[in-house]
Amino acid sequence: MSSVDWNEKAKRLLKSELVRRGVGSEDLVALLENIGVEETKASIDSKISRGTFSAAFLIQCLNAMGIRSFVPEVDAQMIVSESIVLYKTKKTKAKVKS
Question: Is 17 helix (H, G, I), strand (E, B) or coil?
């Protein structure tokens, strides 16, 4: 199984939304300021370039751009199956959580 570069995926996801809406870094600074988030053009460029921004920053950007519905593209390589977790309760010996 190949390793997924999640930072690269996050970077591409945000950049594609910015391009789709014709929003540059300077525009994003102003839009974020409108919702009470203070960032500089340099800090935004740096975060996006690294792809290491928080989920909160992503949501702030989407909200600032007026995006109310967001469905990221997910390909087969990004999907990771979760393991089944067994846990015990007082009423039953074991339950399966999937």
Answer: helix
Burial class (CB in 10 A: 0-12, 13-18, 19+), 12: middle
Radius of gyration, CA atoms only, the chain:
19
pLDDT digits (tens, 9 = 90+) for 66-93: 998 877 776 655 545 555 666 666 665 5
Closest CA to 50 of 5, 20, 19: 5
Q: Exposure pattern of 16-51 as b/e (b: 16+ CB <10 Å)? A: ebbeeeebeeeebbebbeeeebebeeeebeebbeeb
